[in-house]
Amino acid sequence: MNSTLSVIREKVGGSIPSRSCQASIRTDLAPSTPFRARTTKSVIESPIGEPSGLEGSHKKDWTTTASAFQRLLKWLDGETNSEGQKYLEMRRRLVAYFDRKSCTTPDDLADETLTRIARRLEEENISGTEAPAKYCYIVARFVFMEHLRSSRQEDALASDLKRNATEAIAVFDQAQEDEDIMLSCLESCINNLEPEGREIILGYYVGKEREKIGNRRSLAQSLGITSNALSIRACRIRARLEKCVRECCRQSEILS
User: Fold this and answer.
1) Own/partner pairs for 205-209, CB < 8 Å, 24+ apart?
2) How many other C-beta atoms are found inside a 10 Å radius of the C-beta of residue 136?
């Protein structure tokens, strides 16, 4: 009987209003490329990695070349060749700066700062503008502000996603509750039909395709009526069921 009720529910339920509504969760969030931390040895032996994506799209594709990295080392050294020690010291100071700002990825932000400086040395010839250490901290401050703004946006988006997920779960639970109420009301309304009406509505929707046609023909013959008359009776019974289920669902909403 449960399968028959499901079929009748599809026929009857389309005109019965539900309390639930659809909810959607935005999924257009694209994850940002994670920073890559480097060891002290790799910092000296290879150029700084790709920018983190905190700058505009026309800048984030820029990659530090070997010549740009050497220009950065020379700019940090000034008049003397420290063999990369000035670079390592400046990087340690930048990591400490971002760590004091409670950043979760201080090494990555330090690398991003040095990457931007290397790009500007390459593209804008800033070598004579400020003392290297001072200029590094100026750029670091901008990197920090952009990181802070990006973190706030991510936090807001995470909060929004969590809220939407909670709403979606509530909607799903409500939809499941509505489904249970509707099936319960449908079963009750069918049981309240007179015996012949109950026999007609339960037998009318049994089977699929040709099997259903054969069942309806047999049902009409057992009742001593034509197939057309059976169809009219089933339609009228279904209309009564729709009204009964609608009223039952409405009463359930009032009681809840």
Assistant:
1) 205/4, 205/7, 205/8, 205/11, 206/4
2) 22
Query: What residues contact 113, with CB distance under 8 A and at least 6 apart?
Result: 94, 136, 139, 140, 143
| 38 C-beta neighbours (distance < 10 Å), count | 17
pTM, two decimals, is 0.40
Specify whether the CB–CB gap between 256 and 26 falls below 8 A: no
What are the distances in angstroms from CA 98 to CA 55, 207, 255?
18, 70, 58
Nearest-angstrom CA–CA distance, 19 and 256: 12
List the one residue out of 168, 150, 172 whose CA is nearest residue 160: 168
- What does the alpha-carbon distance between residue 46 and residue 118 come to, in Å, rounded to a whole number? 13
Burial group, residue 189, by CB count within 10 angstroms (0-12, 13-18, 19+): buried
The per-residue DSSP string of 88-145 comes to: HHHHHHHHHHHHHTT-S-HHHHHHHHHHHHHHHHHHT--TTTS-HHHHHHHHHHHHHH
Provide the Cα torsion 147, 148, 150, 155; round to 10°: 140
Each residue's pLDDT tens digit, 237-252: 999 999 998 888 888 7
Query: What does the pLDDT average to over 88-111?
Result: 92
